[in-house]
Amino acid sequence: MPGQFRPEDNTAAADNRPRVQWLEVAPEWAGQRLDNFLLGRFRGIPKSVIYRVIRKGRVRVNRKRARPDYRIVAADQIRVPPLHVPEAGPEKAQPGARVQRRMTDAILYEDRDFLVVNKPCGIAVHGGSGIDFGLIETLRAARDDRYLELVHRLDRDTSGVILVARRRSALKALQDQFREKTTRKAYQVLVMGDWPDDLDRVDQPLRRTETPSGERMVRPDSREGRSAETRFRVLERFAGYTLLEAMPITGRTHQIRVHAALKGHPVAGDSKYMDDAALAAWRKIGGDRLMLHAHRLTLASPGEDGQKMTFEAPLEERFRKRLEQLRQRESG
Question: Where is the composition biased (Basic and acidic residues) (predicted)?
Answer without folding.
Answer: 201-210, 216-226
